[in-house]
Task: structure prediction
Amino acid sequence: MNRYFQRLRHVSNILRHDPASNLARSNIPDITEEEIVEVKSFFPMRKFFIFGHARSGTTLLARLIRLHPEVHCNWQAHFFTRPPLLQSLVSNEEVGAWLSRRDNRWNRGKDLSGIVQRVVSDYILEREAKSFGKVIVGDKSPSSLLNGRAVKLMHKVYPDGQLIYIVRDGRDAAISHRFQAFIDQPQYLSKDDQNIRNAIILNPEPFLRGVQSVFTEQGIYQAAQSWVTNVEETETYSQRLYEKTHYSLRYEDLLVQPWSELDKIWLFLDAKSPNDDLVDAVNDELSQNPDAQWQQEKASEIAGILQKGKQGSWKDMFTARDRDIFWSVAGKTLTKWGYLR
Result:
């Protein structure tokens, strides 16, 4: 979790000190309906994007969705979810002037910014999808850094796109994200967080039983607030901008009834009804956990302590303080999504 906030500060520093940011455009035009029709004549595949808070099952969902013979999905393009963003291609004032100037006879008297963003993204997505023989393609990128703004940025380029949002119990997501920080980049942890990490390695039992917390008090509060902001903002803007073309699901439901959930998503994407023989492929994919394997190789001294993807880990690991703080911040949102105290 600490790494997450360090990344935010890093991005903020880049935006403040990057000389190019002084030439940032105040208003980048949205792609128009006319431009969408024209671009689709070159890049006809249907596009979707998977958003979700960090450690909420976005990767698992992408792995399962792309098992369908018509659907391809890969991850972490971060077109709309992490700076510098797709719009950085056209965000410079001088670039905007070049794309819209009157003596540029190629632009037909209009700013080409919307087309440029769309064509770059479409090409990246369709290039790979075609190599797999797929006709529907999407990207999954966690949206924890920009929350609702990611939805708005997507809509500027893909108002005709489809948005899938996956939610996981924020308490489980917080624990998983916390251990990811312990494993991936421990060098960026604060001194207090380093002490917690070392204590877990030496004697994990008190942490697994909720006697000692894996969070500082500030850390658990920030984890709860981050989750609430992501869920509330994403749902608000999804409903507003993608009224009939957004789909939300819970990670827990995907685990309990994967075939039912995937069938709904493939129907939402207008993919053909899959054959029953795909059930075995789905079950096989669910039995694998590449992320757990990678984390074991990265930091074996701590990676095996927490079972990856498990539901309800927070019930064992949250201290009384953790429970109270998280619920005080996120209780309303947890209840809305069917997560009990």
Summary: Confidence is low (pLDDT under 50) at residues 14-22. DSSP finds 17 helices and five strands in the chain. Residues 70 and 271 are 7 Å apart (CA to CA). Strands lie at 46-52, 71-75, 136-140, 162-167, 246-250.
